[in-house]
Protein 1
Amino acid sequence: MKNYNPEIDCLRGIAVIGVILYHAQIIIFETLITKNFFITLDIFFIVSGFVTTKLFFKENFSFNIFIERRTRRLIPPLLLLILITTLFSYFLLLPQHFYNLGQSIVANFFFSSNILFFYQTNYWDYATFTKPLLHTWSLSLEFQFYILISLAFWFFRKNIIRVVILLFLTSLIILLFPKEFNFVYNLREFDLNNYFLIFARLWEFLAGSLVALFLNNEKYSKNFIFKNYLNNVGLILILLSIFLIKTPNNYPNFLTIVPVLGTSLILLANNTQSRHFILSNTLLIHFGKMSYSLYLWHFPILIFFFYKNNFELNALNKIFALVITYLVSVGSYKFVEIPFFKNNILTRRNFVISLVICSITTLLLGLLITNKVIKSKSHSKYENIKLNFSHYNLSDTKGADRIILVNQFTNSEKIKILICGDSQGADLTMALQSNQKINEKYEIEFAPFLACINEETLLIKSADYTLSSIQIDGKNNLTYNNIKKLHYIVTVKSNKKFIIVGAAPEFQTDADLLLNYLAITNMRKEDIMKNINNINKFFFKNKKAYINDINKKLFKISKELNVGFLDKFDYTCNEKDKICFGVDLKGNKNFIDYTHISLNGRKFFGNIIENSNWLKLN
């Protein structure tokens, strides 16, 4: 094939194999050996930037043809994936997860699923295993890049190199100085250097674009030895990045430059007659050619296997899932990708008409699911569970009355504690007030946090200790400055002692997490007591990761203010055993929703606080 570069398909093959193995979580001798393979996804971005930019330098280039070719290449397989995934999801997903799928479908229609997932979840949270279209975030990035690079060539073709370099450096600055680009959206703190967003990913695409622009210069040397040298260095850098980048936290980051540079060097070699033992490997070329189909199908298939096996896959399950992924991908490649993209199975007019009809149908499907007109098959299962486990009050999302005792401060010698907090602070107050032994030592009052800092409640002057119990950057839009203000009121104006309390765990659920567990496992009422530990492990797995970041911030604030810090995770979870106490030893539930504790939870956690001497005021 004229000008065919096998190394591009080999890079795609390396990328898709790495991503699939990362999601499959390959474990050998109890060690997760593919935990760093997520970085191979970056290879896709650089290759995409390179291939796309090269198209603009073809003779007789046309924007109409470019758009048509990209659409023929990407949209038909994506639409088929969405329809088949929706069908299987109807039978397999829990009601809330099926509803979330509807949102994903709608977001994909507008090429914005990365923005949806950016707002909904952390890519590394356990909840990713409930989102079969999560991986489409990278496709949205691709489309956003296509739009940007097309506009750049349309308006600035004569100065395209300068424009690309400017955009490249801007994106790189966002990557290197992430703290300078934080912002608040819907009362939550985010940063532009986010795994899902184009801002700190754009430079990766443009690294490929810069290589394409450089190769378009006829002065570039075509020395074969030099090319092999670049290939070997590039492969070493990609391999090295797997060992250097040990955690996905705060990714992309400075170390992302390593795999990006490695991939760019291989593309820079531009070896169309490669005989490299890796970069001309027949098997890698095979996987590379069908990498798009492999990428599309692997994630929902793995998700469905997770669902069918209670989110615990053994080696045989994973092998079976990977085999099915390969077979389905071969079918998608041969019967969808090739006919639409390479063989132009439909004329332009018929293709556009078919595309519009199928796209609108898909959008309507997503809207019907999102608005709960179409409900998953498990919806009735949910209702039956609520009836069979009526003692759990699974339909009740409010829980028992939130009764907080008032007028607790007296003239006694007991230590007086005021908790200035949000709803989680109120939960802590009720847990403390529910324990008799705690009440024998302390008198505990609660006041809303804003009342403490705006009205400077008299309770502060009466209390020996004031505890700040809020989740900063949460729904109440409370920040470090608010804590600092309360600290000043308590320690300077009132000359009393001040302590910061960490945020409580939040769980990945829009319903009752216990209800989700019962539905997934098809558990009978008589089996609850035998599965207490499994239930609590399920709660631990479904912790929201960003709460850990919030608690790190709160701990850092306590150090800056030189005050004590109390961590709610010390009594709600056990990091060593990897459990969070969703239920007690008798099977009674401790949470009523994603974070707030039940009446039983107040007593249960109150006992742990007392028995563990958690309330260390000194």
Protein 2
Amino acid sequence: MPLLVFAVAVATYLPTMTPEVDFIDSGELAAAACTLGITHPTGYPLFTLTAHLWAQLPIAARPIVRLNLLSLFFAASAAGIFTLLTKEFLNVVAFPVLARGGGGKKKKIRGQKGDPEGSPVLPHPTGTPEALRWLAAGTAGLILTWTSTFWMTATTLEVYSLHGLFTASLLLLAFRYYEEADPEAAFRRGLLFSLVLGLSFANHLTTGLLLPPLLVLFGAKWRQERTPLRRIVLMALPVLIGPLFYLYLPWRTAAHAKIIWGMPDTPKAIWDFLTVSDFRARLFARQADGEQWWKFLLRLPARTGYAAIPLILWGIAGAFRKARLHCLVLLLAALLPGIYASTYNVPDNIFYFNPGLIAGLPFAGVGAYLLASRLGRQAPPLLAGALLLPLAALPAFFSNLPAVDRSGNYFVRDFVENLFSAIKPNAILFALDNHVILHPLYYYQNVEGFRPDVIVLSNHGLQKGWFGRQLSYLHPEIYRSARREIEEYRLYLEAIESGRTRDYRLLDEKYYRMLGAIVAANCDRHPIYITSEFDPEQHRSFHPGFQRIPEGLAWRLYRAGETPEEFPYREFAYRNLPYPHSDADAGRHAYLYMLKERALFEASRGKPELALQWLDQAARSFPGEKYLSDTHNGRWVVPNRYREVLATRTKLLQAMKNK
């Protein structure tokens, strides 16, 4: 059954996989994997090294496709392991099991009523064969496979699919360790659990959210068996192997890798990196950028296919009566990631709910088993299970397929190519930390060699003190040209971070003085561009003495009084994203805003017909309300920009008519 669920998952995920670089962190992770770089905190060294090896396999023509397949493989494997986890839980809830390595003798399961250590194992009243348990476990496996937030981790390169695999594996290994009665066999299982736990920490530090429920389970076993502390310590030693992977961070920093976030090469820098100091303000914060907990709960029935919810509730009730300890462990393992996800203020926080789903959906397997058993009193149980249980999972497939199908996502590639089609050779591009631009560029420039002549300076990076160090060896000529201003800003930022001063107004002033120095010192050698997010009304001090001219999807800077170069009309390749996404709305805003600004510029030069062409192209980039996300950009910004385009077009036509 686990292999069947794995095969179904692969068959489902493959035709819905993203063919290109996706939004969020996809491009950054791909670039780091291919070049052995360092991603944003916490660096994900195990994922990076694994992806680097996988990227060498000749399974697809382009690295990004190979790496997307890696996420697919991890997610499908997680679904298979989850099926084993659910079967293990069903064994604990309802059946006696054969002791592994116990010579065929039956053993009791701890935590069951009537036993001195718990409750009695209750034989199934109808004598249902083990096949029904596998059917119930497979049903839960398919529900997880087709749950939208889990399915999405399989369609694009992300660390969440590997984290899901580790989560399911750790819960399975923990249950098997607890159930093992033979001390030596249990010790070996404990060693394996510790090894996998350490490796999971090397991938994602939110593995720590599993520790409280698992310690409850292990503590019960140690207390019942009076396990010596020395044996517990020995069993835990393999966990230390995983953290050794974080030595990758100073190694690659010292090697000046192409992709480095944070320069983690000193004990303090490594500590700040692993404790996500760059994102600390987003931890345990009011949810503004991601999905709030109550919205997640409201959307959960649709995401799991509706039928899963009554099965989960029935399964919780049944499991709580028969295996209270295991039930409480899974409920706690489901609750803690939900609390963390709902207070981590990032756009992709929905994926942080997935470990909770992996811990909670085994109850759907219990509910499915109970339902099939009930129906089995009227018909052969296997027949009832074979007919009914797949129907419990299929609603998730049909309800989620349109929302998770990423096979038509060329939006990011089109946007990057359109942006750069208007940028002159050897240019400098100042860009905000927009996932539609920066993270894809890490991949396209450093892996596929796309426009390596353009130097991209990230606003988010420039605001960090470590970026100046990177600039000194990645682009030494730019660093030297504004060294004094860069170092003044970096030193004052250090004073702010150490608490020696709190004058943020002066910090802001030094920041824009640094940007202005880079622009002034390099404008004669490099065309200078700024992405559309740098609003001229909000960033007046960015480039004193320069004028902004809209050219394509970016502003180009010219000295005051300098005649701008001619920028002929062009049609940008634009394939609409066939599903809502907040980052796509940011890209649509750029199309609507910048093409409208170009139209106004052409109209001011007495070229109304050319202005109309730009306005018409801008209007065509508006996808319609159903493709906009449920965010501020989707609800307000993009529709308002579209209305501005239409209003500008009406005014221009009226002016042409009056003439």
Protein 3
Amino acid sequence: MKFLIKKQIVKFRICHYNPDLDDKPYFIDYDIPYTDRQVIMDALHYIFQNINSSLAYRWNCRSGQCGSCSININSVPGLACRINVDPSKKYVLEPLYNFPVIRDLVVDLGIGFKRLAKLRPYLERISTPDRPEKLTRESLSTAMDLHSCIQCFSCYAACPVVSSTKQEFSGPIAMRELARFEFDPRDEGDRVQMAVSSGLYDCTSCELCKEVCIPKHIDTRRKAIEGLRARAVERNMGPLEEHQSFIDKIKNTGYSIDVITKPFTDQVPSIIDVEDPIDEVTFFPGCLINLRLQHVGHNIIEVLRRNYIKLHIPKDFVCCTSVAFRTGSRNVTSDMILKNTKYFEKLEVKKLIALCPGCMSTIKQDWPVVLHEQGAQPYRFEPFDINEYLIREIGLKNLNTQELNPLNIKVTYHDPCHLNRSQEITKEPRILLKLIPGLKFTDIQQSDRCCGAGGGVRAGRRNLSEELSRIKVKLLTAPNPDIIATSCPFCFVQLTDAIKRADLPTKVMNVIDLLASSYRAESLK
């Protein structure tokens, strides 16, 4: 007896639009048979060859090198030849955002190439060398890393700042191009001045450009934008005036913001002990929790105490210097980092946790670089985000869920960029939220869209920052939640301000705040 094997069908919804004939774009649904190792381009070829030969799309090399097949795949730009088809998913294919559509999935990239051409994308020399120049791998390493761009413009299409109507930003691809020549020792053009005038300080450091840069994964934020900002500071072209006040405070007080109310570290003892602790950690409050959002620090104590974790509160820590790295003011970072690491060494810190993703991503990724540059020993403690610590280190089975009380609220979640992309922590906050009885959780498709707080944009480009937060709040409040949860003190402030401007009843809370409220059986209605 022969058994018929039913083929798996993948559903595609594809945008069609001919500006010469259609009033507006429209979508057509297609059912495509799934095949092993199928990519999005295979599905497009199948539709063109078997269903609709009028479908317009670009392709060329099919190996991720030409960049011509870049389209929006479920609202995220990517190369059709590199994105594998998951038969359990449905796909919506659209043309790249931020470009005029020629037809269907084909866009006019002319605006992008014209912007690049204005940057003079070639080596500029004032004088001809007298003899052949000696170039080393070290001197060209950064420039070569940035040279691998295939100009697919996925980063440009994805960038939330480019899509904002309030600002003229040349985009991540332009910053990468300028940095490529700035860090090439042969180039003598004034690339830093060009970058500043092209919106260097408009970047929010969200790292979406790196995420969609497939298969190259160019670290545009760190290697291009923050590198150019550092050069701008060296040449007195940066940081912005609004940023300088934060840098001056770090130099003068050790914190990036003023002391207005009693610091969190002065409100609590150095050690929060519990009976029969299952673990022992040190909490790094950061400037914002220590000096503005002290209630978050108290809620962290509550959650850790309920889970039988002994907690140390360092009294003499200083700023992590995230704001200095993000704005290019690296001249203040080494002293603060060395002071912190020596202090933690003295306290014999084994595990360091933080709720602020800006602090923790800086500790994880920037501190080791500076310590190496200074010839200092690497720090010996293990760094953890609080969500990461509770789920990955303590473990779900060891968490105290018996004392959690129902909250009976509707919640959605905003992914902080420095938590999601910088540390790859996305599932953990959602797992913690779903542990709370009575909490109805609704995720949104663009939960990871930047709120506009980071990269110094909130301080230095306030109008742009508010526009980005308005867009994000509109997305987050679409499911009509009672509370928008996040896990970042900076995002908390940004979203709270946006909610107030929109005169909405929705509240913003950190995940830890919700857990603490559940343990205390507080009503949040």
